[in-house]
Amino acid sequence: MSLDYTLYYWPIPFRGHIPRFVLAEAGAAWDEPGFDEMLALKEADPLDQPTPFMGPPLLHHHASDTWLSQMPAITMALGRRHGLCHDPDLDLRLACDASDVLLEITNSHGAQMWDPDDWAAFRADRLPRWMRMHDRIAAEAGDGWLSGTDAPGLADLTLGALWHTMTDRLPPLRADLDAHAPALADLADRVAARPAIADLRARWDDSPWRYCGGQIEASILDMLERDDRQ
Amino acid sequence: MSLDYTLYYWPIPFRGHIPRFVLAEAGAAWDEPGFDEMLALKEADPLDQPTPFMGPPLLHHHASDTWLSQMPAITMALGRRHGLCHDPDLDLRLACDASDVLLEITNSHGAQMWDPDDWAAFRADRLPRWMRMHDRIAAEAGDGWLSGTDAPGLADLTLGALWHTMTDRLPPLRADLDAHAPALADLADRVAARPAIADLRARWDDSPWRYCGGQIEASILDMLERDDRQ
To answer: Is the ipTM value over 0.95, yes or no?
Structure first.
């Protein structure tokens, strides 16, 4: 099968699982280069990059030979091309929310490691607030999809990729999601169970990183272990 | 004149000037509530907010009585409604870039104050890289607009609102922009000179904050003053 796309991202779930879930549900064929190729492209001079970009993800659409950076722009472009974009305002607002949640849980992309007080405040306040916000939105889907169609659209896929991935990779947070956001947890599970997405997850190589990688992943795991001992 | 929109944002330029530039260029009529009303809405329970959101901007479109959060979603919605969205991939990618630049210059929205070493690294490396990235894009417009039309579109307005506002409010950075990104500086100036945008800027009340407000604004001004003394 010929490839539709190449997705440039680090070999971690985190932000990358949002376009990956969309690509999988769309039935697209894509590959991902290794870490070294990704790093070389990121560090190239902006004049030498295929499109000037600061950080991944970056998507190359082979048929049109176009390159696109920024996760929300990538998922919206995929959504339009593959018929998954049913409510552009909601779809995009959730992609931006997802970026913010991922920024927050990594303490600004690992700018600093978590300290226990800041983590405790995040887990008690901002994280449940994000969950409750998205639970209110997810509840509108009932037993169906926010897309209003018989398959998940971009809004569903984004919520699923954000919250299922987080709570699957960081299992202690699953209880938080169930407690604060039962409709969201259900929607996220249903997205994760879609055949192409379940297949992606089953084939995913967990090592060496589980979620966001690096020192900040170790810091989050350390915080969760402390919470568990208390 | 009846109002088309209410824009909820803090009384600072920063992120808010991106939707403001778009609203002004679109010829829309909008108002903005005061600080206290903004704060009350932000701190309300997600179930009581008009749409669940974490932080401003938030846009209320009166005719449809719809509410939208997240700056890129707001500018894309305005762009579609007012005929300013000519290349959705580029328009959205630049809105996301702008969010990242604003995050970086405020050291993750003021999570920490700048220290001189980190600021020096930012001003020597990441900030010029962003400028050079966007200069490559702006250069494609030549003496015209990225929209390819005879008036600026969303991509032009976003670049103008980001870079003109930053270098106008933090004047020492204008020399950085001129040095690293002459085409971008020119595009930003032409956007800022559009009659409705020039009028917005002339009427803007500078006090008490100049750019992003708060302690982090004071920290940036302190860093710029240190740089100037060296």
So the answer is: yes
